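Internal ticket #5521
Category: modeling
Description: The requester needs a full-assembly model to guide mutagenesis choices. All entity lines are attached below as received. Residue total reported by intake: 474.
Assigned to: D.W.
Attached entities:
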Amino acid sequence: MDNKVIDESRQGEVIEMTPNNQAGKKLYLESYGCQMNFSDSEVVASILAKEGFSTTRNLEEADVILLNTCSIRENAETRVRNRLTDFKKKKEAYPELVVGILGCMAERLKKSLLEEEKLVDLVAGPDAYRDLPNLLQEVGTGQKAVNVLLSRDETYADISPVRLDQGGINAFVTITRGCDNMCSFCVVPFTRGRERSRDPETIVEECKDLFSKGYREVTLLGQNVDSYRWNITSKGELKDSSKPTTNFAQLMKMVALVSPLLRVRFSTSHPKDMTDDVLEIMAAHENICPYIHLPVQSGNSEVLNRMNRGYSREWYIDRIQSIKRIIPECAISTDIITGFCGETEEEHQDTLSIMDLVAYDFAYMFKYSERPKTLAERRFSDDVPEEVKSRRLNEIIEKQLSHSLKSHQQQLGSLQKVLVEGPSKRSDDFYCGRNGRNSMVVFPKGSAEKGQYVIVRIEDCTSATLRGKIEQYV
Ligand code: SAH
Ligand code: SF4
Ligand code: F3S
């Protein structure tokens, strides 16, 4: 996922004023990394709106620049460091400009960021956003400010995020934070801390509120949505005996019942934890999209074992067979890491063969990037040469492109229910929107409106997009 600016001018909006606030100041927020970071940026905007900040998409008028950063691969961090150098001149011209680092790099690098990157004034980790007003005040007194404390219970459950795409159709709703899985390649447990689930009532309330504001799709977010659990300890005991427990399947049903017009998506499913009851709830609710992102990482059991993923090739294939049995029309996407420590040519072939077996509709594909402090860094050597990683990645990408194209070709001639998201990038005469299977569909506007469902007859395709014409307005 690429860096993407999701700020929005919020001029003219009435903002609650507090004494000593930062009234009239402009915040420029840029997000990198996963959807979770984009969702967190909306929490940050909400916390700072209460202090009198309005957000701007114009860097030139910013008083505070915050970068919400990602550490997942080395190049994600390099991109942010390069971005920081862009700000150097601005800071020279306007010394009061505050530059802050939020998110996973803040957590990974902590104080050293202030020393390494002299122009950074503030560092706040993912669980420290409520402290941002104080940290900004500290910076205002000429000090550098840091809070990278991780929490066991912060879920920002009571904070209603400021949606940065006003008038939007899709919103992210975070349901769990952190991760307890410790996959050996992954930095997330270190940057995001322990896994915790958010109160289901606040999730449902947020979805109802979004629906009433015109949103028609919510994506429930967690590093492993299948381990969502509310009111139950890891030992299976009730936390509050007067209240029911909630697992992910039950939560999804609660959200699906908000309205039949509200589409429900979710990410990410974990192969070791995804149960058939989740699939059955999906099959039973038309508005839960038939699409699952189920990262395989590797098709070889030995590699999966070294990755500490908690499942084997056979287990993963069994999960795929369950999906195909219970939701035959379900689209499946994945993440693949190539060139993990010790990966042999045969092990790589197993990844290619599992791709043929599943025939993924879409995939995110990466070269292994060693991350400091992870289990893999401590236990194994990053010994697959760069050129071998590149060649294997190319083979994987080539295979995926042919599978993506085939998946779209199979939809030619079919009728697809599409949620109109807005004008297509290429032409104002066309709309774009996704079908339940998460394929992007482009079609002439007709008399449809943003946020409406239409039935489109698919006439043409590439590996990335479906094209067609509206046959029916729903
Ligand atoms: N929680 C999700 C993944 C979050 S990170 C899950 O378990 O599936 C998103 C993806 O980044 C991962 O699925 C993995 O494919 C990739 N990734 C994570 N760490 C990586 C690393 N060190 N090098 C390369 N890719 C990595
Ligand atoms: Fe990382 Fe594994 Fe957790 Fe995903 S499940 S965030 S890959 S540790
Ligand atoms: Fe990156 Fe942190 Fe997300 S490392 S992928 S922003 S959880």
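Resolution: model delivered.
Comment from assignee: The two ends are 32 Å apart (CA to CA).
Ticket closed.
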